[in-house]
Design goal:
The protein has about 140 residues and is an all-alpha fold. Helix content is about 80%, strand content about 0%.
Amino acid sequence: MENNDTINLLKECDAGAKMAVVSIDEILEKTKDTRLKKILGESKDAHRALGNELHTLLIQHGSEYKEPSPMAKSMSWLKTNVKMGLDESDATVADLITDGCSMGIKSLNKYLNQYEKASSTAKGMCKKLISIEEKLSKDLREYL
């Protein structure tokens, strides 16, 4: 069903964009390098803006948004605090966010394939989110 696939894909993208914002927020204050902070801040803004677009589309489809799972948020928080507790470097920041990007890209591609009957608009939004994740991952490479 196109409508269900569309709504499901939009919900997963919405949750992914929110998870990215939460993850960047968790790590931003621990970042030392000003340029790295700028990269993270710009990506956070891009994720938030896309999240707002996704939310609007969900409302237009008569659906509610989806929050990231409490388990995913808890695991992210735990991993971040353990790793940063051992090494509070910008390399650790880049490593954590790059891992998150990889997980996001993998999940989003899975959902793109799973919800193959989603509208071209929903698929386009998903691809846009993947692109934001790929750019962030690429921008962080010099900090690894």
